[in-house]
Structures are given as C-alpha cells and as structure tokens.
Specification:
The protein has helices spanning 16-26, 32-43, 63-71, 84-96, 135-145, 168-177, and strands spanning 3-7, 53-57, 76-81, 103-108, 120-126, 146-157, 181-189, 194-201. It is an alpha/beta fold. An eight-stranded mixed β-sheet has the order 1-4-3-2-5-6-8-7, sandwiched between helices. Helix 4 links the parallel strand 3 and strand 4. Bound molecules: S-adenosylmethionine.
C-alpha cells in the first residue's frame, strides 16, 4: 500500500475534527452496500477483471475501497482524498482488514489526480462531487485518467439541506456539459437515505 501526497487542495480539505466526526458517524454509509454491489455487478461482466484499475475520488475513510478490495480480484484500487486525516483513517482500516496488496491511498483532490493518463477503468465519486474545489478541473482530470472504454460512476445524495446546485439534476447536467455521456441511472430511496447512482462514459 502506498500513501503519498499529490495535492492537498487546502480550500476543500476537511479539518481533522470533521474527518473524525464524519468517519465515526457516516463513514460506513448505509447506501455503500448498494453502491458496491452495483459496481461489482458491472465489473464482473468485464473480461479483464484481474487487470482493472479502480479510483475512488473523495474516498473519505475508505469504506468503499475496502469493500471493493475484499470482494474483487482486480489489479489496483486507489483511494484519493484531499483531507490528510481521512487518508490516515482509510490506510489504518485497510491495514487492519489485511487488504494492503491491491490498495493505494493518496492525499489528493479531484483537481490533481496522482494517476497517469488513461490508467483508470472505473472512477467513482461517492457523495464527493459537490465538495470539489473546482468541478471543471476535476472532470478534466477524470477524462485524462480514464481509459477510453472506462466509466465514471457518480453517487449523489438527495438532502433537503443541500443547495439546488448540489442536486442530482444539477450535477448530472454539469458532468454532461463537460463531455461525459450518461449511460445509466438508478434511484435508491429508503428511510435512511435517498441517493442517485449515475453511470457516465466517454464519447467514442
Ligand atoms: C461526504 S464525504 C464522502 C466520503 C466517501 N466517498 C463516502 O462515501 O463515505 C466527502 C469527501 O469529499 C472529500 N473532498 C473534499 N474536497 C474534495 C476535492 N476537491 N476532491 C475530492 N474529494 C474532496 C472530503 O475530504 C470528504 O472525504
């Protein structure tokens, strides 16, 4: 496992206190199960599963990275987050679960991804896009790192306290306006959460 600093995006990195609070209270979000099973369902249809590279942008405490690493035999699962404390918590939990071989973590915002061009088969952004410091720069980075057949899987939460700018519709429109095509979408609503799963691809 590697932990290195690419860009700390200080304007959107969270404080240690907020990272600790988030991890303790929402670190394993009830929707992560459906998020992970949706990824696995899609990835299992691919022929080259063992050589895939996955990238979780704004991975927080690494709950989804760990769930994917424990269920999928793929080459690399990379988690990035600009909040150093999140990466510390994610690295420790991953070590404790014995999932070091496939995983890497970097302190990095979406705006500066520590990955070479076209290396990523599946990029995820779970409840993180509305936190990005510069959405256009982040999306340009996602396009740079995705391989042409790759997918960008975005999960957005519907919450009454969020601005209209953070709604599923607004985020979807911004991503499409930046060159991605919506391939599939689903909604999951329970007493605990209401989320949208959006799957994008790049134009041919
Ligand atoms: C609501 S949490 C979601 C964490 C995790 N994806 C999950 O589902 O539990 C949002 C995360 O976005 C991260 N974040 C803030 N600014 C970011 C940026 N510019 N690029 C990527 N992630 C960012 C925060 O540090 C935080 O860990």
């Amino acid at each position: 496992m590697t932990t290195k600093v690419c860009d700390t995006s200080p304007s959107t990195a969270w404080s240690d206190e907020l990272a600790d609070w988030y991890s303790a209270n929402h670190g394993v979000h009830p929707s992560h199960e459906i998020v992970v099973s949706t990824c696995i369902e899609h990835l299992c249809t691919l022929e080259n599963k063992e050589t895939l590279t996955l990238l979780d942008i704004g991975c927080g405490n690494g709950s989804v990275v760990q769930a994917l690493a424990s269920q999928l035999q793929c080459d690399r699962i990379i988690g990035v987050d600009p909040t150093p404390r999140m990466i510390e918590i994610a690295s420790e939990a991953t070590r404790n679960q014995g999932l070091l071989t496939q995983t890497e973590y970097y302190v990095s915002g979406a705006e500066c991804l520590p990955v070479v061009d076209h290396e990523v088969d599946w990029a995820l952004a779970i409840y993180s896009v509305h936190h990005w410091h510069d959405l256009v720069m982040g999306l340009t980075e996602v396009k740079r790192v995705l391989n042409p057949a790759g997918r960008f899987f975005v999960v957005v939460e519907e919450r009454p306290d969020l601005d209209a700018d953070c709604s599923e519709l607004a985020i979807k429109e911004k991503i499409e306006a930046n060159g991605f095509l919506l391939e599939a979408q689903a909604t999951h609503k329970t007493d605990a959460y209401h989320c949208y799963l959006l799957l994008f691809r790049l134009p041919n």
